[in-house]
């Protein structure tokens, strides 16, 4: 089909129906693959010719056509699409007797393939009768002949025209906000209704102007503003970015909570723009009243760099400038620079060119700096961990050049063991067990046993080494201690699986050094670091008159927590810093948990429009929102010689998918939703009145409601609407996740000791 002629002022939808009809008449009479232009764009088309039948298969994923919309950053949180198009022509004496065309689009959530949608578009053309038509018209050019038929005809492209449908009877942004605001109060943030309201609010913000958005933020009270900031930032439109930047004043320390929520929402952005990173870089160069906000801003810049680089945007001017700023502050740090913050930014950015810098800081520095650098290296894909990286990690673990802290050495060992270690690397690690500080011996044994138990990639090499009796003997594998490391499955399914890992390291005097809770989600092609909560403590030996471990004699008293949430490193939170701060906190401690992160996060964000070859356009939207409240606490009792750490995770999730075909005179579609609320608690209790001290770890999940529904609807221009709904609700039973048998035995002792002491108090 060379040309398509229609009327200039004809509605776009009518023209697309005609384009769909004209495209049906395009076929080749020989087998093979060609590149053709039709209503779907410029596509690869394969023809199969057999006698009087021609089959035409169009590869829809090859079509070049203007596309609108966006997808989620992480593959596990995204939506997969499968599209097929086939047309069968039946010919009789080279005339078309019938045409049957069918086009299918299937959409499903990668993390739950049961949740999805399907659009089927069919065309059927049959020869009904044969009769005489108008005679031939003579002319030098086709265009001239067309004009003689109707002077109003003009030539148009065969590729479909984009037709926008306007939302009729939609409430204003302010009206919508009034209908959902009751669910957005802080105390309701662990409920599924909060996540549902958050998603619907984002959809409305995306249609709103800057002025409409500002009307809401300027009129609401303080307790609702953080949730409004989450939604406005997550909308990711030029109008929403302009509005929030006009509202927030980074020179005003009193609004630091809102500034932090804005920055974290930027970090979790599903499809960040170059303009967003450019804006944050500009803010960094300006005055910022709160130093913690400046730190958060730098860390979030690192996350945006990675997201833009993952979408082939590493050479964008804003990305180049941000990378130069962060790397420059580490290559030539100034006296007042907080080096750790820039290392945390690299922990998010994961730039290959930053690895040499991280190696330098990991090996030559100490304390937080060295620890942050080595944990940043741990987040890289093993393919980036070259021989130079492994050599440095081996030097750190075996302390070839200088003495390092246990936390740094154990992380270095974990990097070696997770990056295709050689036989000798594994053997040297095993031979070191027995020569390490007391608790580190036990910790490294647990790491080795965990690799074998979960059949991790290096397990084959470990098993080979264990055949050598010098590495595998009773003296090494019977070392006492309370430190441990354990991994297990939360879920194992056909779509995705998720694992948890709990490791806890103590100092030789029995005080917590580090506890680390990780949750990973993965499928066949991708993985997601869904969560990490680390509680660290150091320099607390003086409280119980104990001797610090080797390499930790000069460490300041410190305790704090840091978190990774959906692959984004958050700014660490400090419980106390220094001996004076420690004593004041201990005397005033209430045991109440400290909030690590609280807010609303847009997880899945998929929006695409598809041109159907029959003429109408289809739109598909999937959004997934998370309402989250993570807190961590540490209680310390000198009287009972007991410490307890508690990490509480309260989560509610809501996902909605909507597929719609708007055919101008009829709108038809379907909406599918799923929602759940759950809580995951990690409790670690330590009694250090004896050695080896008693340690009990617990990881509990409460019973969780799970609901999903499906709604199909059709609506006519007259306003009449037909809907059909069905749904299902169930309770997912709560459970206590099994850890190793040694932990179970220890818990029995801890709780029996606690009950004995309480009964004999008088």
What do these coordinates show?
By secondary structure, the chain is of the alpha+beta class. Helices cover 34% and strands 33% of the residues. Among the domains are: 4-156, Lipovitellin-phosvitin complex, beta-sheet shell regions (Roll); 483-588, Lipovitellin. Chain A, domain 3 (Outer Surface Protein A, domain 2, Single Sheet). Strands 5, 17, 18, 19, 20, 21, 22, 23 and 24 form a 9-stranded antiparallel sheet that branches. Strands 10, 11, 12, 13, 14, 15 and 16 form a 7-stranded antiparallel sheet that branches. The chain has a 6-stranded antiparallel sheet with strand order 2-3-4-6-7-8. Strand 12 and strand 13 (527-538) form a beta hairpin. The longest helix is centred in the middle third of the chain and has 20 residues, at 291-310.
């Amino acid at each position: 089909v060379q040309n398509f002629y229609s009327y200039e002022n004809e509605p776009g939808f009518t023209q697309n129906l005609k384009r769909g009809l004209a495209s049906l008449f395009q076929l080749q009479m020989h087998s093979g693959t060609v590149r053709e232009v039709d209503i779907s764009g410029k596509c690869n088309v394969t023809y199969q010719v057999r006698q009087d039948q021609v089959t035409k298969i169009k590869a829809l994923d090859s079509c070049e056509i203007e596309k609108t919309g966006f997808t989620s950053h992480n593959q596990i949180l995204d939506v997969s699409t499968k599209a097929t198009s086939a047309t069968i022509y039946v010919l009789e004496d080279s005339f078309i007797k019938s045409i049957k065309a069918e086009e299918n689009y299937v959409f499903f959530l990668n993390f739950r393939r049961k949740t999805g949608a399907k659009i089927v578009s069919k065309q059927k053309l049959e020869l009904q009768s044969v009769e005489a038509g108008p005679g031939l018209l003579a002319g030098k050019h086709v265009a001239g002949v067309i004009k003689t038929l109707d002077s109003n005809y003009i030539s148009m492209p065969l590729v479909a025209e984009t037709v926008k449908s306007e939302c009729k009877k939609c409430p204003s942004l302010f009206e919508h906000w009034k209908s959902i605001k009751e669910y957005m109060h802080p105390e309701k943030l662990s409920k599924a209704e909060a996540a549902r309201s958050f998603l619907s609010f984002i959809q409305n913000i995306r249609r709103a102007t800057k002025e409409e958005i500002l009307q809401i933020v300027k009129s609401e009270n303080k307790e609702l503003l953080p949730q409004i900031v989450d939604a406005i930032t997550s909308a990711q439109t030029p109008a929403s970015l302009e509005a929030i930047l006009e509202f927030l004043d980074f020179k005003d320390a009193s609004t630091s909570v809102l500034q932090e929520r804005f920055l974290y929402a930027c970090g979790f952005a599903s499809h960040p723009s170059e303009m967003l990173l450019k804006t944050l870089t500009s803010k960094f160069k300006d005055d910022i009243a709160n130093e913690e906000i400046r730190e958060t801003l730098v860390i979030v810049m690192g996350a945006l760099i990675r997201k833009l680089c993952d979408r082939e945007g590493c050479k964008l001017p804003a990305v180049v400038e941000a990378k130069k700023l962060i790397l420059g502050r580490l290559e030539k740090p100034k006296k007042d620079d907080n080096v750790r913050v820039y290392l945390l930014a690299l922990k998010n950015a994961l730039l290959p060119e930053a690895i040499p810098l991280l190696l330098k800081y990991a090996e030559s520095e100490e304390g937080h700096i060295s620890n942050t650098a080595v944990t940043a290296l741990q987040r890289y894909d093993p393919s980036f961990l070259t021989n130079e990286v492994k050599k440095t990690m081996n030097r750190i673990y075996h302390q070839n050049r200088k003495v390092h802290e246990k936390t740094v050495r154990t992380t270095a060992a974990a990097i070696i063991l997770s990056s295709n270690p050689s036989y000798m690397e594994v053997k040297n690690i095993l031979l070191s067990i027995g020569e390490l500080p007391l608790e580190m011996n036990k910790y490294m044994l647990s790491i080795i046993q965990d690799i074998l138990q979960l059949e991790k990639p290096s397990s084959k090499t470990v098993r080979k080494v264990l055949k050598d009796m010098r590495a595998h003997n009773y003296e090494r594998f019977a070392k006492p201690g309370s430190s441990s490391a354990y991994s297990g499955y939360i879920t194992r399914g056909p779509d995705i699986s998720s694992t948890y890992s709990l490791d806890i390291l103590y100092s030789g005097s029995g005080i917590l050094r580090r506890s680390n809770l990780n949750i990973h989600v993965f499928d066949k092609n991708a993985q997601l670091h869904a969560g990490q909560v680390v509680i660290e403590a150091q320099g607390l030996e003086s409280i119980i008159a104990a001797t610090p471990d080797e390499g930790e004699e000069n460490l300041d008293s410190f305790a704090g927590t840091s978190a990774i949430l959906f692959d984004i490193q958050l700014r660490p939170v400090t419980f106390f810093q220094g001996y004076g701060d420690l004593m004041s906190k201990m005397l005033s401690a209430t045991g109440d948990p400290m909030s690590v992160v609280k807010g609303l996060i847009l997880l899945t964000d998929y929006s695409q429009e598809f041109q159907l070859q029959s003429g109408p356009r289809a739109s598909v939207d999937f959004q997934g929102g998370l309402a989250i409240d993570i807190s961590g606490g540490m209680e310390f009792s000198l009287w009972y010689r007991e410490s307890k750490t508690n990490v509480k995770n309260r989560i509610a999730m809501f996902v909605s998918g909507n597929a719609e075909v708007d055919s101008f005179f009829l709108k038809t579609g379907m909406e599918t939703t799923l929602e759940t609320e759950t809580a995951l608690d990690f409790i670690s209790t330590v009694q250090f009145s004896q050695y080896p001290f008693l340690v009990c770890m617990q990881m509990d999940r409460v019973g969780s409601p799970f609901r999903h529904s499906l709604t199909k609807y059709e609506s006519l221009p007259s306003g009449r609407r037909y809907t059909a709904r069905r749904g299902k609700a169930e309770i997912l039973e709560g459970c206590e996740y099994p850890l190793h048998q040694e932990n179970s035995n220890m818990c029995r002792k801890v709780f029996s000791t606690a009950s004995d002491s309480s009964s004999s108090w008088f």
